[in-house]
Amino acid sequence: MPVSVREAILSDIETVLSGIGIANGFENDVASVQRWKQRGNPLKDVPCIVITAGPEEKKKGPNPLITARLKVYLELYTRQDEGDASATDTVLNSILKDIEKALYADVTRGGKAVDTDIQEVIPFGAEVGNGHAGLIIGVEILYRHLADNSAQAA
């Protein structure tokens, strides 16, 4: 059974982000990329990216299509060892650069979307001694599907 265009887009994001590694021409190795789980996601292996689908707007048109704007949140978690002299912002900015490179390599998400747009980056964990620090990266995906078949991109 074919999956919806929405699911195919989320799956593509997971695949693309899983490819972030030094061996693939990036500056960092991402240890774990996960889809959001209601029972919680393990954050043991860092850097870790958790992908969460956010709100989605859908509008009819152009006929016979539905145009959708899906917000996706990428939660980037990292942890610095006691001996790491790098500024936390420097570490996060380097990984963010890799995430941008990976996402913008194909803004159509394998032909399933019209565009991919990073819209916001929000830091978290800035308190001294917090176990994890990271960024919440808000991404908007514009896509279309047939009105009578949400598995058929258009």
Q: Mind telling me the C-alpha Rg?
A: 17 Å
Q: Alpha-carbon distance between the termini?
A: 18 Å
Average per-residue pLDDT, rounded, comes to 95
- Decide which structural class fits the backbone: alpha+beta
Instruction: Report on the biggest sheet.
Output: 6 strands, mixed
Number of strands: 6
Q: What form results from the Cα inertia axes?
A: elongated
Provide the low-confidence segments as ranges.
Answer: none
Q: DSSP helix count?
A: 2
Q: Name the helix and strand elements from N-terminus to C-terminus, one letter apiece.
A: HEEEHEEE
Portion of residues in helices?
A: 10-25%
* Percent of sequence in beta strands: 35-45%
Report on this structure.
This protein is an alpha+beta fold. It has two helices and six strands, in the order αβββαβββ. The chain has helices at residues 5-18, 88-104; strands at residues 32-35, 48-60, 65-78, 115-124, 133-146, 149-153. Strands 1, 2, 3, 4, 5 and 6 form a six-stranded mixed beta sheet that branches. The mean pLDDT is 95.
Looking at this protein, list some descriptive labels.
154 residues, alpha+beta, six-stranded mixed β-sheet, 2 helices, elongated
Q: What is the topological layout?
A:
Blueprint (H helix, E strand, L loop, with lengths): L4 H14 L13 E4 L12 E13 L4 E14 L9 H17 L10 E10 L8 E14 L2 E5 L1
Parallel strand pairs: 1-2
Antiparallel strand pairs: 2-3, 3-5, 4-5, 5-6
Give me a quick take on this structure.
With 154 residues, this protein is of the alpha+beta class.
